[in-house]
Amino acid sequence: MNYLRIFLILFLFSLVSGCEDEPIKQSLNKSLLIPLKIGNEWTYIDSSVNAEGTHAFVETKTYVIIKDSIWNEEKMFMFNRTDFLDINLYGYFLNRADGTYLFDSSNIANEPQMFIKFPVYKNNGFKGYTDFLIVSNIDTSYTTPAGLFNCIMYESIKSDKNNSYYIHYFSPGIGHIASEYYYKNIGEDYYLVRTVILTSYKFK
């Protein structure tokens, strides 16, 4: 009987310890990179960084999905900042099997364009909505005020012709976690000029 009690105590202790060692926040549905549903919202701190590495300007931005629409039998969702409700600043987003697409009626093609690819593999390259992106890591941790997340790193292309590049961090089932923007002068190394970091999120 004593052996049985000891076993049960050790078993329960292992369960509790396992939970405490698992601080990474994740949605249960990781089949989608960005969960699109009316009422879902994400709040970020958008900070510019000066040459000394300190934050020169800080702004809090909350993005919420306010409505949906149907395009060719596909459901699309509109994002907006909470201080600009009912103004279509960004267009409509929709999830497909190969990633999230953006439908912008001002686009000449008048077709949804790839916004971010998912699922992906390391070194996967693709044309995003504005730039060509490379998947530099598919399992990296990123800590924010909203928690610790397992992320995919999407990077823009570095070249001698580009004086800027950026990195986006996305966590499957949660969405956009953070972005880092870098700049360089001719003959110098890149340095950080802006960060966008998730501080909280609420899903319906």
Describe the structure.
The chain has 204 residues and is mainly β. Helix content is 9%, strand content 51%. It has one helix and twelve strands. The chain has one helix at 2-20; strands at 41-49, 55-71, 74-81, 92-96, 99-103, 113-117, 125-127, 132-144, 147-156, 164-171, 175-183, 191-202. A twelve-stranded antiparallel β-sheet has the order 6-5-4-3-2-1-12-11-10-9-8-7, with no helix packed on it. A hairpin with a 7-residue loop joins strand 11 (175-183) and strand 12 (191-202). It is globular and about 50 Å long.
The total of beta strands comes to 12
Note the run of SSEs as H and E. HEEEEEEEEEEEE
Largest sheet: 12 strands, antiparallel
Return the average pLDDT rounded to an integer.
Answer: 82
Amount of helix = under 10%
**Contiguous uncertain segments of 5+ residues:** 1-28
Q: Descriptors for this entry?
A:
single chain; 204 residues; mainly beta; twelve-stranded antiparallel beta sheet; 9% helix; 51% strand; globular
Question: TL;DR?
Answer:
The protein has 204 residues and is mainly beta.
Question: Topology, please?
Answer:
Layout: H1 2-20, E1 41-49, E2 55-71, E3 74-81, E4 92-96, E5 99-103, E6 113-117, E7 125-127, E8 132-144, E9 147-156, E10 164-171, E11 175-183, E12 191-202
Antiparallel strand pairs: 1-2, 1-12, 2-3, 3-4, 4-5, 5-6, 7-8, 8-9, 9-10, 10-11, 11-12
